[in-house]
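Worked problem 6 (solution included).
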Amino acid sequence: MDRRDFLTLSGLAASGARVDRSLIGTAAGRTRPSPRSSLVGLTALALLAGYAATLRGMAAQYWNDEDMGHGFAVPIVVAWIIWRERDRWRALPSEPSAWGFALLALGAATQAAAAVGAGLFAGSLAFLISVAGAVVCLGGFRLLRAWAFPFLLALFMLPKLAIVYNQATLPLQLLASRLAASILTVSGVGVIREGNILDVGGHRVAVAEACNGIRYLLPLGFTAVVFAYLSDPKPWMRLAVLAAAIPIAIFANAVRVAAAAWAPALDSGTLHQVAGWMIFTVSLAALVPLRGFFNLIYARYHA
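Solution. The predicted structure is:
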């Protein structure tokens, strides 16, 4: 090998080394997390740690209270909606605001009130307020507005407010018994109603607290809002379908009570559960033609 060949090979080797170092540097730059991503991750961990007791309490209520079983699905759906709309909110300019610290302070104060006796509802609300504060601190009010619908949907995560639940339970029980008695009477079935007790041919059914309709109302309302979001771009449709879900849930619960009074086999056990799920499925299906009806009215007055 002469001197020129040696110099040529040395140049190629040096060039290859520079390319390799460049590639290694590029790959390292791609894998190294940005300071903003690290800050977002640390903030999320701080919120989870600070509200760990509250989140455990929420999960326990979702697990033990059948009225709140839908709570497990809410954060999953909220996270999916945020990911689904990522192109829209990623295009927004990042405008961190110090006002977020005011929301964080409000969340901390609400959490302190929950710790001294305000209850799980207050602690859960404090968690959402603190998340909103973190969003404003890191991304600004534009990002918070872009996430307005997921935040509103997250309200379905909140546990039942005891004072409201206790005040609404008895009126809902009496309403369910009256509607069920009316359904049976219209169907030609003889029924005697005494408060929240129905008597059909000697078979007596008491409309208990668990049959007040909230077990249908909360999950049906949540599903109705998600259905409207997926099927129609108009924001007002979500409110319209949610409003329609309220009487549907109340009537569906009355049908369930009437069925249990008419057929003793449906009063409890597996058949009682199966009948409940079937009626709930029919209630969900009723939302589809209602959405079409609302669109028909909208088109008529906005033609």
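Discussion: The first helix runs from residue 3 to 31.
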